[in-house]
Structure formats: C-alpha cells, structure tokens
Amino acid sequence: MASELAPAPQIDGEAMLEIFVHRSIKFTGMPLNPDSPYGDGRRLASIGGKALEAAYTLIFFNKRPMLTAEALELEVSKLPEQVEKWVEGYKWREKVRHSPDTNIRTPEETRYLMDAYVGAVLVGEGFQAVLNWITALVDPSAAQPAQQGQYSEPPSKRLRPDQQMPFPQAPLPNAHAPYPPYSPPPHMHMPPPQPHMPAPPLPPNPLAPAAPQSAFLPLFNQTAQQRRLEVQYPAQFTGPAHAGRWTVQCLVNGIEKGIGTGPSKQLAKEEAARQAYYAMGWAPRE
Where are the transmembrane segments (predicted)? Predict the structure, then answer.
C-alpha cells in the first residue's frame, strides 16, 4: 500500500526521534529539550492534529461542485479512517521503539503518529507543505496545483480572455532621436571563481546502521537527558559576514567534551555533539 501513497515529506532526525521513540521507554517527567524546536512528540501531536484537521477540511471546502455544510461535516468525520489507512500504508508502526507491553495499534496511538508527523512538517516547512501533502493523499489528481503553492480557484473567479488585464506597454522610442554617446563601463577587477568544494560526508552513526548519515545531535541530547546531564552549546562566529565560520563547544556539566567548526552553526554543533558522544564513551566499541 505504501507505493500507492504520496511520499511523506522529509523531517529531520531530531523530529524522527521524538515521534518514533515511544513515551513508554522514556523517563517519566523528562523535561523538554530547550535546544529542540519541537520540545517533545506530544507537543508536535498537539499542533499537528489541529493542522491536519484544518488542511483536511479545507480540501473538501474547496471541492467543486461545492459541498453543503452537512456533506462537508460528513467528509470530515471520515478523517480517522483515512489516518488508519495512511499510517498503515507508510508502515510507521514498524518504526516505533516501545516497551513490550505497549499496544501501538490502538486508534489513539495511530492518531498520535499521524498528528506528530504532521506537526513536524508544519514546524519545519509550514502549513502549505502540510496542505500539499494531505491534498496528494486525499486526491492525487489535485496535488499538482497545491505543490505549486496555489489552490485552483472556482471557475466563477477566473477571468475570461476578454477580461484579462492588459500589460502596460512602454512608449516606443523616437526613431529620429539621436543615440546617446557611448561611454565604456569602468574597469572592474573580478576575482577568479573559487572551485566548488563538496561538503565532507558526515561520520557514520554507530546507533543507526540502517541510516548511517543520521545526525548525532538528537541522539546525544536524548542520551544526556536520560542520564540527567546538563548540556550547553556556547557558540562563537568569526570572520566576515559572508564567509565566516562558527565554533561551537559541547559542555557536559560545564566540562568541554567536544568542539566543532563549520560554515554554519548547525554543522559546527553537530560536529561538537559527535565528538562529545565518543568522548563520553556512549558509542559501542567495535
């Protein structure tokens, strides 16, 4: 069934960790991660559920011919059935890490997975990305206008060819007017183009053999929280604004365990977390 569904939008490794690591194997009362834009999976599900219902309702509201209010409510009431089909089609339940006594096939757990994933797409890409995705799931034939960031307007709102606004035309130049004298542009020294250097590949992640390029940062933060360690990432930017570099430290209980540099703060922070992960001895020995 997964081949019949539109591809789910990509979300980052930190969001994947929050969604697919079940609360049954997390510490009770674990504080929110202040370095994460998500907080935790329950926050994602809270905002994602509202965005999902809004997108699903809007799709049928814009359906032509128009649906009555009663017909619209009837279509919206079918959302739980659709969520069950989508979650099963994406095989998300197989990705969830949970305790042995947890039943992840209940309607509540199924809706949680869908809502949390929608929340991650909403936070990362915005509501239009959510709308494009859900439109492709509900009606693949209508997905193309949504992917272009537009919704097809009702036929009554479209202009006929004779109603199109004419483009303003610039006045024609005077054929008898003399051409202005030619003045060569000032000589400008352009530096030779710099050769393109591909970004170095991320080091393999020892805890995710099926996804060796997964980020270390969410794994490190999750492990540190589980061990109740305080983690800080002081950052410093040096150099010109257009070509400077970031230096980020990873401090565990105030002690430096890793330091990373890079053209962006996120890359430097990732490298610092990777070094700290190995320095703490959390990576499995080969």
Answer: none
